[in-house]
Predict the structure.
Amino acid sequence: MIKQLIIGDTLHELAATRRILERLPEEHLSWKPHEKSMTLSGLATHLINLLNWQIAILQHSEFDLLTVPLRREPINKQASILNEFDENVDKLEKLLAECNEKLLAEEWTLRQGEHIIRSQPRAMAFRTFGLSHMIHHRAQIGVYLRLLNIPVPGSYGPSADEEAP
């Protein structure tokens, strides 16, 4: 049951995320709405990194923030963003298909060296640290697109830019 819920949620959210990435205007990838904000390409690259984290949650019993680079250079080509996103989605979908309820119930730990930030069942970590985190940043891209006057695709029904069926 847990696996079915995770797969259903994940497939929906991945499709909605891809739709928003398809709208990225290459000429505005270096744009940001505020000096403290990430660039559009930085945010899109972060979404790809979050897929890597989701993959890591399913593959490993812990994730140590000290073992990953703090910043990754933003990807500045829309085609490259979509290609890497699609490659990671393929890996994630395969891992989800192969996982079982026992794996999803196992403890997963987020740490920074010896400091444990969070320990929880893998399914909960996947949902909060992976999927909800991705949804949050996808929504930020939606705001960026709105500010750039680019039609925003709906995630849970039509957006203000789309007609209801």
The radius of gyration is 16 Å. The chain is about 55% helix and 10% strand. The chain has a mean pLDDT of 94. The first strand starts at residue 62 and ends at 64.
